[in-house]
Amino acid sequence: MARKNTYHTPGGEKPCGTLAHMLGRACLFFVVGGAMVACTGLHSGNYVADDGSLHGRVSLSGAFALYPLAVRWAEAFKSENPGVRIEIEAGGAGKGITDVLTGQVDFGMLSRDLNEAELEKGAVPFVVAKDAVVPTVSEKNPHIEQLLRHGISRETARKIFVTSEVTSWGQVLGHEGGDRIHVFTRSDACGAAETWAAWFEVGQDELKGDALNGDPSIASAVASDHLAIGYNNMGYVYDSKTGKPAAGIKVLSIDVNGDGQIDPAEDFYASVSDLSSAISQGKYPTPPARNLYLVSRGEPSDPVVSAFLSYVLTRGQALNHEAGYVAVTPDSASRH
């Protein structure tokens, strides 16, 4: 089910100036009755008042992966700009790209790279954060201690999620027999599934398992099934307040070098901060590490929309780390 929050937030940023300066964008306005108004954009009523305050609305939809961070950006922007309402809806990356290209929202939240067809339709991506998709198991798995020491290699994960050659937890640990693995995957068009599949060099439709809609559904299913394995955006694996693994679920460490054990250099899952540092240092494989994007249809020109994007790409990056994401630099935030 889609998750939706509405924030009444203002636009304290100056109209488009920072974004235009940093990314070389052009902002187009006209003046009506003393107020500066965007001449293009989804919300014709958005404007900048004489005192520089922003008024209007910004809307986002899409990837579950980016939803928690987008909420934090909106809350912070709100504290500075009470005249702007920000609407955020999670429903998967597929929904995000559809909504933005059909003009339903200002920004699609994407947890995957854009394809050529989307770029040809006018999609303009901005890298706003980095995170990762991680393999998840129940903390009540009867083999949990062995699994955390042994980890899972890319090849074994592929044999679970793609070829179905590995069907028991005994096989994961290097011997025959054992409890049968219950595999969960995503049913919706989403960046998490595409990124997970890309790790195996296949498409989302080639992933095996019981298909569920949305990140929360897989996290809940894995937590409640002691023989389950799934994959989740890291934001749904760690508690947002403590930064520690969420109750009921564990990250199954990736055995990057394939030696059958988790070496100290591969052991960085104790907290979201540890995993974020590993991603930024390139210790966690890419994929399933990936860029996260805000995507607009064409160059943003509305002053309120541009101010929000400017905030996200600059001062808003300070919120990334505390929310469990990797911040991006102005260079990497440029359009790809």
What does this 3D model show about the protein?
- 30% of the residues lie in helices and 23% in strands.
- It has 336 residues and is of the alpha/beta class.
- Strands 1, 2, 3, 4, 5, 6, 7, 8, 9, 10, 11, 12 and 13 form a 13-stranded mixed sheet that branches.
- A hairpin with a 5-residue loop joins strand 4 (47-48) and strand 5 (54-62).
- The chain is elongated.
- The model is unreliable at 1-41 (pLDDT under 50).
Task: Spell out the blueprint of helices and strands.
Elements: E1 3-8, H1 17-23, E2 29-32, E3 35-38, E4 47-48, E5 54-62, H2 67-80, E6 84-90, H3 93-101, E7 107-110, H4 116-120, E8 123-138, H5 144-150, H6 154-161, H7 169-172, E9 182-186, H8 191-199, E10 210-212, H9 215-224, E11 228-233, E12 249-251, H10 272-280, E13 289-297, H11 303-313, H12 318-322, H13 330-333
Parallel strand pairs: 5-6, 5-7, 9-10, 9-11
Antiparallel strand pairs: 1-6, 2-3, 3-4, 4-5, 7-13, 8-11, 8-12, 8-13
Question: Which keywords apply here?
Answer:
336 residues, alpha/beta, 13-stranded mixed β-sheet, 13 helices, 13 strands, disordered N terminus
Multimerization state:
single chain
Give the helix/strand class. alpha/beta
Global Rg: 21 Å
Order of helices and strands: EHEEEEHEHEHEHHHEHEHEEHEHHH
What is the residue-mean pLDDT, rounded to a whole number?
A: 86
Q: End-to-end distance, in Å?
A: 30 Å
- What's the number of helices? 13
Largest sheet: 13 strands, mixed
Q: β content, as a range?
A: 15-25%
How many β-strand stretches? 13
What general form does the structure show?
A: elongated
